[in-house]
Specification:
single chain, about 220 residues, alpha/beta, 5-stranded mixed sheet, 4-stranded mixed sheet, 5 helices
């Protein structure tokens, strides 16, 4: 039976959606982004229906959602929507880091990155901090292994960590405008986990805000 994976990225003012059949490939997938800003909450469901096209929700085998870091409001809206859909449709829900999706995308697209090089990702946060994480390309199975989980740090702490890092690394300075465009990599990572036999419940999908919205 043919099945589709469906991914949502709502952690910025730009909505990203991606759909792929049976397994992820550039040929079998389609994706799109829209700049919605504050209208995300009121227009999200309309874009979901439009993007699905002739497919029905019954054609899906899993959902994937970017769990953050990113916008507090956008991340919350996306998680609530994805959890509700996954619960009602009884589908697995993969909640994947925004930083991991960016790292996976950059590794797929940039042939100059050494294959065994660690991937250090930073994204500007508020209050002079950075959202940070470090990943290692997996030799088998899933594309990336997490070495340092998502953490909000000062620039000084992040620089100190990298100065002490003992393995070669490639620094990725992610931009907020890049996040929604990595929705295809989000879907690819979810397909890898799905094919490995993982079936996470919607209740396990939790956001990573990194910082409290009120200082």
């Amino acid at each position: 039976m043919t099945g589709y994976g469906f991914a949502l990225h709502t952690t910025t003012a730009r909505l990203g959606l991606a759909l792929s059949q049976e397994e992820f490939s550039e040929a079998s997938s389609r994706s799109q982004t829209w700049l919605l800003g504050r209208s995300l909450s009121s227009e999200l469901h309309g874009y979901l229906r439009e993007f699905m096209g002739p497919l029905s929700w019954a054609d899906l085998v899993f959902l994937a959602i970017a769990k953050g870091p990113g916008s507090f409001t956008g991340t919350r809206i996306g998680l609530v929507t994805a959890r509700t859909l996954a619960q009602q449709l009884e589908l697995p829900l993969f909640a994947i880091s925004s930083l991991e999706a960016i790292a996976h995308q950059r590794r797929r697209q940039d042939a100059t990155i050494p294959p065994d090089c660690d991937l250090a990702v930073q994204l500007v946060a508020s209050r002079g901090e950075l959202f940070t994480a470090i990943y290692k390309p997996a030799k088998e199975g899933r594309g990336l292994t997490t070495l340092v989980t998502d953490t909000a740090r000062s620039f000084e702490d992040w620089t100190s960590l990298l100065d002490q890092w003992r393995s070669p690394y490639y620094l990725i300075k992610a931009q907020e405008d890049d996040l929604a465009g990595s929705v295809t990599s989000l879907l690819d990572l979810a397909w890898q986990d799905y094919q490995a036999g993982q079936r996470p419940s919607w209740s396990q999908a939790l956001p990573f805000y990194g910082q409290h919205p009120v200082h």
